[in-house]
Structures are given as structure tokens and as C-alpha cells.
Amino acid sequence: MGQSKWRVRVSALAAASVAVAMGAAIVTPTLAGASKPAPAAKLQKMSAAELRVVRQFLSHLKIGFRPGMLVRGSVVNGVTQLTSTTLSGYADEGVAEGFTSVSASWVQPTAKCGQTQSLAVFWVGLDGMSTSDPTVEEDGTFIQCPGGNAHPMYFDWWEMYPTNNVELVASVSPGDHIAAKVVFSGGTYTLSVRDATDTAGSFSTSQTCGTTACEDMSAEWIAEDPCCTDTSVYNLANFHSWKATGAYETYSGKHGGISGPPTTDEITLVDTMNLVKAKPGAVNSTNHAFTVTWKKAS
User: Fold this and answer.
1) DSSP 101
2) CA 271: distance to chain centroid?
3) In the 3-class helix/strand/coil scheme, how is 115-175 assigned residue by residue?
4) What total number of domains does the chain contain?
5) Domain annotation covers residue 24
6) Exposure string (b/e) for 166-189, b if CB count within 10 Å is 16 or more?
7) Phi/psi of residue 4, each to 5°?
8) Residue 133 lies in a domain
9) In angstroms, how far is CA 149 from the centroid of its own chain?
């Protein structure tokens, strides 16, 4: 996407992002001539320069990365109960080279921000559950609460972990209708996010797995508290709830919903004391939808 597609709304936002990246407290910026802070909807579209600042700040994130933080529990009604200090949602696990696509749609949640910086990420991906293959091919949307009671910022993104940094692509807005997909074919992964509300925020990119083999052993539908500040996750932004609909996967040539070929995992996000930070509800009767509910930040 060319730089001409970025629409400048708030020139002060870049300076605010720089201040956040340096750990400084910030004041919520206002539009020129405004007598009060601009509504959140007016702060979503950023210039290419502003976006570069945020990209640099967030480039160290590890989305989908699980540094020994996943605990398997009991099996309830055929679904394995897992806890994680980074992930919440669902995953299907199968054999190597079994999965060739994963997708879902959602309405971008609205965040409630406070004094402390917090993050939340929503994505679909392949490979995130395999312990033998530390790769993830993933895309979705992102919330950054900069702290200091600043308005939240929303983006779409993709990553071929661990080959590249998280690639922020464009700003999106709360309430936008999002569809994310990862498709593997002929040795190439096509990662795409479509913003049906504002198509200027949509993208599609084709990538190869790089030097590490991607085994395509799982498919995921995830809300995440990303890693890491040293070894700790960030505070989880208050996204209220995230409802994934139209959840599909292709496994061994069969296209279907969250159905466990052969294993389905339900993943609850917990803190280091095992207190719940975000919890998924049950998958609906057609295996295509569920909701993750935010519980606490840290």
C-alpha cells in the first residue's frame, strides 16, 4: 500500500507515541482549534511518519510466542482445557502439513484505556500450538493503549514468527468489520485482513516460511496479551469482549469449523497466580463462533 493511502488526522499523535516509547507521560492530543480532546474515532488514521514511530516501538513484540507458558488440563466434552499467560481462544491440532487455511471475522472491539500502557491482539494463524515447530503464520488487529489516559490506537498487522518483526499495516477503527485469513498453498502463505468498513485499511501479502520449516500442525483463533517486557507480558487492554464469527479451517482437504481434527483446545488467559485475565465462552452449535471476555489487566 502506498503512503498516499495514509490519512493524516492528528499531527501531535506521532510526538505522543515517541513520548510513550521513551516512557514519558503524555497528554491526550487535540485536533487543531479544538477546545477538548478529540473523540477516539477521529484519532484512528495516522500518517506514514506516525505509523513508523509506532512500528518501531512495537517491533520487539512476540505475538503467538509461548515461552513455556501453556499448561494442559482436563478434557471436557472432547475439548482440552488449557491455560496460558499470553493466549485466550481456541485452537485445533492435527498432523504435520494437515492445515492449509484458517479464517474468522469480527467487529473490532473498543478499548477502555487508563493510566498504564496496555495491549490486546486478535488474530487467526497456523502453527501456534506445535511444541516441535516454534513458528506462527498469523494476522489480525491490534489495540495499543499508550497510557496517561490517551485514546487507544487500533491497527491491522501480520507476522511470520520468528522470521520478521510484527508488521503493522494500517490504522483501523473500533466497530470496523474485519475478516482475517491465512492460506497455505504451493509453499506460500497468503496473509490477508479485510476491513469491510474502510477498505483502505485492507491488505494481502504472500510470504514463505524462511529458514525454519513451518509444519502446519494447528489452526488458531486467538485474543492475546502479547509478550514481552523482558520476560513478562504487558497489561491486557480492556477490550470488553471479542466475538469471532465465521471461524473456519481447512484440514486434510476438508473445510469446516472449530471441530478438533483430532484435538480441540479451549485456552484461558491467566496471570502468574492463575487468576483469569480473559476467558473464552463455548463454541456455538455450528462450530463457527465464540466470544472471549476480558476479566482483568494484569
Assistant:
1) E
2) 18
3) CCCEEEEEEEEECCCCCCCCCEEEEEEEEEECCCCCCCEEEEEEEEECCCCCEEEEECCCC
4) 1
5) no
6) bbbbbbbbbebebbbbbbbeeeeb
7) -65, -15
8) yes
9) 22
| Domain assignment of residue 34, yes or no | no
265-283 pLDDT per residue, tens = 999 999 989 999 999 999 9
The model's pLDDT over 38-60, given as tens digits with 9 standing for 90+, comes to: 333 333 456 777 777 777 777 77
Rounded to the nearest integer, the mean pLDDT of the chain is 82
What are 67's three cell numbers?
Answer: 515461552
Q: Name the maximum alpha-carbon separation found in the chain.
A: 59
- Where residue 131 falls (left for φ over 0; alpha for ψ -120 to 50; beta otherwise) is alpha
Convert 270-296 to b/e letters by CB count within 10 Å (16 or more is b).
bbeeeeebbbbeebeeebbbbbbbbbe
Three-state DSSP state, 51: helix
Note the residue count of the chain: 298
For residue 35, being part of any structural domain is answered with: no
What residue spans of 4-156 are helical by DSSP H?
A: 12-21, 48-58
Least Cα distance to 204 among 214, 217, 189 occurs for 189
Cα gap 52→186, rounded to integer Å: 32
> Which amino acid, 228?
C
pLDDT above 50: residue 166 = yes
Q: Are the CB atoms for 99 and 126 separated by under 8 Å? A: yes
CATH of the domain at 78: 2.60.120.700
Distance, CA of 167 to CA of 138 (rounded, Å):
11
| Cβ atoms of 133 and 217 closer than 8 Å | yes
Cα separation of the two ends of the chain: 36
- Note down the domain range covering 116: 58-294
